[in-house]
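note to self — DONT lose this again. spent like an hour looking for the file last time. sequence + predicted structure for the chain T wanted, 140 res
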Amino acid sequence: MSKVAVVYWSGTGNTQQMADLVAEGAKSAGAEVSTFTSADFSPEQMDSFDAVAFGCPAMGSEQLEESEFEPMFNECEGKLKDKKIGLFGSYGWGDGEWMRTWEDTCRSDGAYLVMDGVICNDAPAGDAEDECKALGAALA
């Protein structure tokens, strides 16, 4: 049984809903899942999991949340090499540039992205819900 961590930051609750769906998808595929807010996760925990899903909404000019999530993620970057990673997040404007930039960062760090990052405008619904569950299953 694979162990999957779902690590997220959410300001409005949309990305938290996505995290719950990713966790549901991983559990349905047989994984043992632990969910963390970014404040409760550290790079030392990376080695305890076979795969990690990171979730953060687009902030400002399509960037990761700067005060809590981004510092935590930056500290985890050294542990991404050859790790199965999934990315997800919500946005209210823009075209997903923050996700493309984030994917490029993970690839540069040597991560194995199990699928393209999952994004949705505001709260997840319909296809976005299915994509979140598929991301979780891909990580499992």
